[in-house]
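User: These chains co-purify. Model them together.
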Amino acid sequence: MAQLTSAQRITGLRATPSLLERIDLPRRVVFVAAASMVAIVALLLAFIAWQGIQLFVKDGVSVGTIFSATWNPLADGGPQFGILPFIAGTIAVTAGALVISTPLSVGLALFLSEVAPSWAKAIVQPALEIFVGIPSVVWGWLGITVLVPFLADTFGGSIVISLPIVGRVFSMPGFLTGFSWLAGSLVLSIMVLPTITSVSYDAFRAVPQELRTGSLALGTTRWQTIRHILIPAALTGVLTAVVLGMTRAAGEALAVQMVIGNSPTLPASITQPVTTLTSQITLDMGNTVFGEPWQDALWTMSLVLLLISVTSVVLVRMINKRRMGS
Amino acid sequence: MTATRSLRRRSSRGSILADRAATVVMWATGVLVLVILGSIILHFALAAWGVVSPSFILSDPSGDTLGGVMPILWNSIYMLVLTMVVAVPVGILAGIYMSEYAGDNAVTSTIRFAEESISSVPSIVVGLFGLILFVDDLHIGFSALGGALALTFFNLPLMTRLSEQALRAVPQEERNASLALGATKWQTIRHVVLPLAIPGLITGVILTAGRVFGEAAVLLFTSGVGTPPHYNFANFDLTNPASPWSPLRPATTLSVYIWKLNSEGLGAFKNEIVDGSAAILISMVLIFNLGARFIGRVLTRRLTAA
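Assistant: Joint model of the two components:
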């Protein structure tokens, strides 16, 4: 009876607009609130960009040298600010997380949208929302107390796979401490799971029911329908989900910093420590002085992070525009 | 005909087996999520056993005994309230614009682009923005106010989007009926749309609160990482940095405290304190989530029933 109550409420109102409304005040106020987000983004871009270029403008470091693999702010012959290890580390840890998380999340999204009876959905969906709410430091702490010791204890020695006759086919140094690329990727994969799942779920839900019934009427099994009809139809949506998951993984700071070991070298093996942009910023920002070249290099790294995230927003928009177009 | 026949042939034994296997795998992913969540809750319940007690929640941190987290928990709640005081009204107003006023034009798409951009900016970068703005340029230093504003920047898009969804869920007929009775647009929004959207708006507030409560990266460089002093709650002098009520003092929150203890790696009871703090955070997340669900459901029933 909501309609009736609203209607009754209305009859008690004067229909003449108040003075405030005649000067269009409500519209102006809500517009300012919404437009404040544009101002925040503009300010944020301007400030980070300004700080980010100080390394080149003020400290005279040439742009080419930051793409070296040597990071040594305290070197004897002048500091070296090669941020390649951090960029490579961010890419490596993020890629690892996506490789683990994407199949799981898409499987879970398909489960929720195609397979799960309503009682199962009513349990799994709230569980996923709680996943989203768990703070990143808690994931990091779980990584340190559960995952890292597990990796070190179980795969501490060199990992060698040998076949009879052929001999050694695969070998890899083991986890010394457990703090590693793989630990970072595993922690991140759980953190991005809800993002990729919920966006893919929406994509699968958006596929018209007729496509499913049409396919099933031809005698296909559910899995054939999913593989040949649903996944192709929802592909752009799933792609959007993966890009959003990637953005979140690349920008995550504390959980990653706690488990990857933070060694400023190029990623060599999933069992070895690496470092990322976010991780190094978190560690060094507090130990440096505002205006010194070392800190300016950290600002350059945050500018790189910012560019990554803006690029991904544009990427998502392009993917969606193509979907609207076709 | 041929197509049908070939599909028939494909959906023979092999494909039925594949279908069964796929079904099992998809069920397994659902079960995996529940198992992980269940083990996390169990893990922290066990880890916090013997640590979290009334005295842990109510006493100050201490160097060589277990101590407690009272001032830090206070800061978390204080920052939450300070952030929500700004983020909720601005977010709801922005949501009203996006749902009721925004046309299909360049202005709207610019605002949407901004909304999406802030949501995708890494939280640490938002924290660094706060660092330049509040600490380096405005010289406020590490402060609860700076932290709360940075948190507001970061969570405004979420609050806006959830409000917009809540408002859009109000049926168009309601607006039409109100306008047909001669109400103006703003009267319609205030007296018809907003009341009907209250359950959704409250859910949005609680979900945003949950995220604000656990956030740490935004706060490392805005509200500081120092261990808080003993708070004298009788000190209501808002300009005095020693007063726990002052927004201009550094305010380490529970999540930041976990990060700090872990990176310093000192203290005899470090693991116990971190486990206890993490258990408190997880409980709050559960309370926020279940609370949002429960309140949303109760209010919907109350407001839509006769």
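Residues 207 and 233 of chain A are 7 Å apart (CA to CA).
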